[in-house]
Amino acid sequence: MTYEVVGITVLWLFLYGYLIVASVDFGAGFFSYYSKKTKKDHIIHGVIQRYLSPVWEVTNVFLVFFFIGIVGFFPDTAYYYGTALLIPGSVAIILLAIRGSYYAFATYGAEESDFFSFLYGATGLLIPASLTTVLTISEGGYITVENGSVQLLYGELFGSLYSWGVVVLAIVSVLFISAAFLTYYASRAKDFNALELLRKYALFWSFPSIIMGIVVFFLLGQRNEEHFMGMVDLWWMFAISFIAFLGAVYLIWKRKMYGTAFILVMVQYFAAFFAYGASHLPYLLYPYLTIYDGFTNETMAISLIAAFVGGFLLLIPSLYLLMRLFLFDADYVEGKK
Amino acid sequence: MIFDNDPVLLSRILTYLTLGFHAIFATIGVGIPLMIAIAEWMGIKRNDPHYTLMARRWARGFVVSVAVGVVTGTAIGLQLSLLWPNFMQAAGHTIGLPMFMEVFAFFFEAIFLGIYLYTWDRFKTKMRHFLLLIPVVIGATASAFFITTVNAFMNVPQGFEVVQGVITNVNPLEAMFNPATPTKISHVIIICYLTSAFILGMIAAVKILQGNKSVYHKKALHLTMVSAAVFAVATALIGDLSGKYLHEYQPEKLAAAEWHFETEEEAPLILGGVLTEDNEVKYALEIPYALSILAGFSPDTEVTGLNDFDEDVLPPLFVHYFFDLMVFIGMYLAFVSVLFAVINWSGRWNAFNKPLLIMIAAGGPLSLIAMESGWIFTEVGRQPWILNGFMRTSEAATTSDHVGLMLILFAILYTVLGVTFVFVLRKMFKRNPVEREMRKRGITNYEV
């Protein structure tokens, strides 16, 4: 493996990590608000709060890792994406800022308010929608570069079926991943009322998510044929993804092994996300930037990878401790601590 | 639009806004974990539940400020790429390593902070819970360390070569550990501690001024002011070394800070004053020899004046006021905290007298103003460069036409966040005053 491939793999792993943990968080916000509106919040509120409280800060860091890391490994991305994404990027920052601070304000400070929980629910759906812009424009055709000045074509972005397809896929995936996780968490908490409701949510969102996955797969064929052919070559990874999806839905349907079901959901998204990413290579931005011409120098690459390995060795035991105390400690999960 | 649609100017203003707002939360975010650790440690060592409660209550307020710090930190992290794409392209090649490591340090801190907050009564010994705070303190300080090396690099870029416009021969460690690094890092970290001690001291002083006689607030004031005295003296020493660093590596910045025009030995230090159109200094307080001593330990040190630099590379001269403001307040904080510590230690007078309490309370906001002034001085003092000697700020900015609109949006965002932050904190502690919490936890409260 070349340094370029190691670099992008590391970054893609972080983005995958963000996809999972942030989806759980975003979806939880939506379910929390939705259940409040339908007067069912007493059922699932406890489960959501118990899980989210100690981990909300950790979620954001995965994203920061990705966008700081990508500038470290591929400095030219700052030039292209930085200039083009001023507005969507700023909108995402503002939404993230509102979400993060108002969560803390509501949880630690003031009492529950409808307004806070509305903000928390709404931003949970808007943030993934705004973040997907990056993946959409990476397919090419949404950016022009003239005389060294990068422009984002808003008409093209808002008028394209593909870009809206990705937005919908992101939102339904967030809801599915989140419901699948919270179902598992509720089953660990032995909170059977919450379990029933969340299981229903998980089943409800499972089919929209897989159907949108297939729709976007084919929409991409019209958008970027080269990338599409690459994805077709990796058909077996998408097959793994699909089988994992079927397994997860089956287990949740049959009310058994919710933990395994969630792992299968993670496998489903892992396979699809990496197949998408691998076939995207070598391009970071069609057709302007590949991982080879935008790469940092070799010394920096080696030191970044070394820092990554060192940091990872530090983080794994810490994350393990966090999970052991809050995710796998039966007494805590059940609310006895 | 109020301004001409100049992306460079607007990007600068938006960056000031984000950094200025983030700096408040970043500063206390680095300093308060140490103060919590000191309080919890005292609680264990002296077996005094008042200190343990102090750590609890500080931690509860702290976590709300962390939230704002996290989201504004995310904002500046992304805005660097959005507003300064050309700078980040160059920085990615040279100084990407500490930026990357900063995120690791913060990640580490975030994990343990989450654990710390939710495990007060989950461990068998109090010591074990205290130990969770060590990674929080280390992670917070390490974040400040790594990100400040990036700022140091912007002042003294090294560890790379530019051959025909291409950056080559990069040495990331040499870039990180440049001549600006030692003074800059120690200065930033120590003022985080100093500012945090004063903010917490201010709260205690205000409570006592309001007539609250609980021993809790006296202990809090004592702990914060003795810590502040130590930090303030250290700040003064490090500040002195920073002057010597500037003399050696950024003489134009020192000259601009001091309105020092003629190159000379036995240079005086100028405090305050105004500058006439012919660059004459009026109404200023002059301390003879002091600038030479600040620059190189002895009155014989020759300090290069502004007239000997190319005008094209000089920073705006108003930085003098920010420099002075920072130094004045720094001295004030040292004076107040040392005075409190000495009076209290001698035992002859009452350290909790009204004038001193008012001075301590004023120290809270003043310490924040000093911190902001220091940042404005060092950032504006580096102009016209974003990377000193290599890249001008004007070459680094985005070319997008929409920065003005983003500036308005972010100004609204920070206003709303700032106001809600204060509102939520007040409400949080009003609803649960310390007397009630002591009663609830069965801690004896007595008045002194």
Which helices and strands, and how do they pair?
The complex is a heterodimer of chains A (337) and B (448).
Chain A: H1 3-37, H2 41-73, H3 76-84, H4 86-109, H5 114-137, E1 143-146, E2 149-152, H6 154-159, H7 161-188, H8 192-223, H9 225-233, H10 235-253, H11 258-280, E3 283-285, E4 289-290, H12 298-326, H13 330-333
Antiparallel strand pairs in A: 1-2, 3-4
Chain B: H1 7-45, H2 49-83, H3 85-94, H4 96-117, H5 126-131, H6 133-155, E1 161-163, E2 166-168, H7 172-176, H8 181-209, H9 215-249, H10 251-258, E3 269-271, E4 274-275, E5 281-282, E6 285-287, H11 290-296, H12 319-346, H13 354-380, E7 385-387, E8 391-392, H14 393-396, H15 403-431, H16 434-441
Antiparallel strand pairs in B: 1-2, 3-6, 4-5, 7-8
Helix pairs in contact in B: 1-2, 1-6, 1-8, 1-13, 1-15, 2-3, 2-15, 4-6, 6-8, 8-9, 8-13, 9-10, 9-12, 12-13
Keywords:
heterodimer, A: 337 residues, mainly alpha, two-stranded antiparallel sheet, two-stranded antiparallel ribbon, 13 helices, 82% helix, B: 448 residues, 70% helix
Task: Describe this protein's structure.
The complex is a heterodimer of chains A (337) and B (448). Chain A has 337 residues and is mainly α. Chain A has one domain. Helix content of chain A is 82%, strand content 4%. Chain A is built from 13 helices and four strands. Chain A has helices at 3-37, 41-73, 76-84, 86-109, 114-137, 154-159, 161-188, 192-223, 225-233, 235-253, 258-280, 298-326, 330-333, and strands at 143-146, 149-152, 283-285, 289-290. In chain A, the strands form two sheets. Chain A has a two-stranded antiparallel ribbon with strand order 1-2. In chain A, strands 3-4 form a two-stranded antiparallel ribbon. The mean pLDDT of chain A is 85. Chain B is mainly alpha-helical. Chain B has a domain at 7-180 and 392-448. In chain B, strand 7 (385-387) and strand 8 form a beta hairpin. Chain B is globular. Chain B starts with 6 loop residues before the first helix and ends in a 7-residue tail after the last helix. In chain B, 52% of the residues are buried. Chain A: Its main location: membrane. Chain A: It is a multi-pass membrane protein. Chain A: This is Cytochrome D ubiquinol oxidase subunit II.
